[in-house]
Amino acid sequence: MGKKGIRYAAKVDLEKDAATQPQLHNRWHPDIPFAGTIKNEEVVKIQCVDWTGGQIGNNDSADDVRDIDLSRIHYLTGPFEIETAEPGDVLVVEIQDVQPLQDEPWGFTGIFSKENGGGFLDEIFPKPWVMSKWRL
To answer: Going by C-beta distance under 8 Å and a sequence separation of 6 or more, which residues neighbour residue 47?
Structure first.
Protein backbone atom coordinates (compact mmCIF):
# COMPACT_ATOMS: atom_id res chain seq x y z
CA MET A 1 0.00 0.00 0.00
CA GLY A 2 2.82 2.40 0.69
CA LYS A 3 2.44 5.88 2.14
CA LYS A 4 -0.35 6.84 -0.25
CA GLY A 5 -2.84 4.44 1.32
CA ILE A 6 -5.40 2.39 -0.54
CA ARG A 7 -6.04 3.37 -4.16
CA TYR A 8 -9.52 4.11 -5.46
CA ALA A 9 -10.34 1.80 -8.35
CA ALA A 10 -13.51 3.84 -8.95
CA LYS A 11 -15.12 6.94 -7.48
CA VAL A 12 -18.61 8.34 -7.95
CA ASP A 13 -19.83 11.93 -8.17
CA LEU A 14 -23.02 12.39 -6.15
CA GLU A 15 -23.63 15.74 -7.87
CA LYS A 16 -24.06 13.99 -11.25
CA ASP A 17 -26.81 11.70 -12.49
CA ALA A 18 -25.75 8.05 -12.11
CA ALA A 19 -26.75 7.35 -15.73
CA THR A 20 -24.10 9.82 -16.98
CA GLN A 21 -21.16 8.32 -15.08
CA PRO A 22 -19.18 5.79 -17.15
CA GLN A 23 -18.09 3.73 -14.12
CA LEU A 24 -21.77 3.07 -13.24
CA HIS A 25 -24.31 0.93 -15.07
CA ASN A 26 -27.60 -0.72 -14.20
CA ARG A 27 -27.66 -3.62 -16.61
CA TRP A 28 -24.97 -6.24 -17.08
CA HIS A 29 -23.81 -6.53 -20.66
CA PRO A 30 -20.47 -7.74 -22.07
CA ASP A 31 -19.99 -4.55 -24.13
CA ILE A 32 -19.72 -2.30 -21.06
CA PRO A 33 -16.14 -0.93 -20.98
CA PHE A 34 -13.92 -1.54 -17.97
CA ALA A 35 -14.05 1.12 -15.25
CA GLY A 36 -10.43 0.36 -14.41
CA THR A 37 -7.83 -2.32 -13.83
CA ILE A 38 -7.06 -4.05 -10.54
CA LYS A 39 -3.85 -6.00 -9.98
CA ASN A 40 -3.89 -9.52 -8.55
CA GLU A 41 -4.20 -9.41 -4.74
CA GLU A 42 -4.43 -5.59 -4.78
CA VAL A 43 -6.57 -3.96 -2.10
CA VAL A 44 -8.65 -1.12 -3.56
CA LYS A 45 -11.54 1.15 -2.64
CA ILE A 46 -14.59 1.19 -4.87
CA GLN A 47 -17.28 3.81 -4.39
CA CYS A 48 -20.87 2.96 -5.20
CA VAL A 49 -24.20 4.74 -5.32
CA ASP A 50 -27.32 3.41 -3.63
CA TRP A 51 -29.54 0.99 -5.52
CA THR A 52 -31.73 3.85 -6.80
CA GLY A 53 -28.83 5.66 -8.45
CA GLY A 54 -29.22 8.61 -6.10
CA GLN A 55 -32.97 9.12 -6.43
CA ILE A 56 -33.39 9.24 -2.63
CA GLY A 57 -32.32 12.60 -1.21
CA ASN A 58 -31.15 13.47 2.28
CA ASN A 59 -34.31 15.53 2.73
CA ASP A 60 -36.51 13.53 5.14
CA SER A 61 -39.20 13.17 2.45
CA ALA A 62 -40.94 9.84 1.99
CA ASP A 63 -42.05 11.14 -1.43
CA ASP A 64 -38.62 10.19 -2.80
CA VAL A 65 -39.37 6.52 -2.12
CA ARG A 66 -42.89 6.77 -3.53
CA ASP A 67 -41.64 8.50 -6.69
CA ILE A 68 -38.65 6.25 -7.55
CA ASP A 69 -38.31 5.63 -11.28
CA LEU A 70 -38.04 1.84 -11.21
CA SER A 71 -36.56 1.80 -14.74
CA ARG A 72 -33.44 3.53 -13.32
CA ILE A 73 -32.41 1.25 -10.46
CA HIS A 74 -29.83 -1.38 -9.44
CA TYR A 75 -26.70 0.61 -10.25
CA LEU A 76 -23.37 -1.22 -10.18
CA THR A 77 -19.83 0.15 -10.15
CA GLY A 78 -17.57 -1.51 -12.68
CA PRO A 79 -16.79 -3.77 -14.39
CA PHE A 80 -13.11 -4.06 -13.61
CA GLU A 81 -10.35 -5.75 -15.52
CA ILE A 82 -8.30 -8.01 -13.26
CA GLU A 83 -4.70 -8.39 -14.41
CA THR A 84 -3.95 -11.89 -15.75
CA ALA A 85 -7.59 -13.05 -15.36
CA GLU A 86 -9.06 -14.78 -18.39
CA PRO A 87 -12.72 -15.36 -19.35
CA GLY A 88 -14.03 -18.30 -17.35
CA ASP A 89 -11.59 -17.87 -14.45
CA VAL A 90 -13.01 -18.01 -10.94
CA LEU A 91 -12.09 -14.96 -8.87
CA VAL A 92 -12.03 -14.68 -5.10
CA VAL A 93 -13.04 -11.24 -3.87
CA GLU A 94 -12.78 -10.36 -0.20
CA ILE A 95 -14.89 -7.40 0.94
CA GLN A 96 -12.93 -6.06 3.90
CA ASP A 97 -15.06 -3.07 4.89
CA VAL A 98 -18.27 -1.28 3.93
CA GLN A 99 -18.70 2.37 4.86
CA PRO A 100 -20.90 5.31 3.86
CA LEU A 101 -19.30 7.91 1.64
CA GLN A 102 -17.40 10.39 3.81
CA ASP A 103 -19.44 13.40 2.63
CA GLU A 104 -22.79 11.54 2.79
CA PRO A 105 -22.99 9.72 6.17
CA TRP A 106 -26.66 8.76 5.98
CA GLY A 107 -28.75 5.90 4.65
CA PHE A 108 -32.32 4.76 4.10
CA THR A 109 -34.49 1.72 3.84
CA GLY A 110 -37.91 1.23 2.32
CA ILE A 111 -40.59 -1.41 2.05
CA PHE A 112 -42.50 -1.17 -1.21
CA SER A 113 -46.15 -2.13 -1.57
CA LYS A 114 -47.19 -4.29 -4.50
CA GLU A 115 -48.78 -1.19 -6.07
CA ASN A 116 -45.34 0.48 -6.08
CA GLY A 117 -43.26 -2.31 -7.61
CA GLY A 118 -43.28 -4.77 -4.72
CA GLY A 119 -40.18 -6.32 -3.25
CA PHE A 120 -38.92 -7.84 -0.06
CA LEU A 121 -41.72 -8.36 2.51
CA ASP A 122 -44.51 -7.18 0.18
CA GLU A 123 -46.57 -10.21 1.24
CA ILE A 124 -46.35 -9.06 4.86
CA PHE A 125 -46.73 -5.33 4.05
CA PRO A 126 -49.01 -5.32 0.98
CA LYS A 127 -50.28 -1.74 1.31
CA PRO A 128 -48.47 1.42 2.36
CA TRP A 129 -44.74 1.83 1.97
CA VAL A 130 -42.64 2.78 4.94
CA MET A 131 -39.39 4.71 5.01
CA SER A 132 -36.88 5.17 7.78
CA LYS A 133 -33.62 7.04 7.68
CA TRP A 134 -30.59 7.12 9.93
CA ARG A 135 -27.40 9.09 10.36
CA LEU A 136 -24.15 7.32 11.08
So the answer is: 8, 10, 11, 12, 77, 101
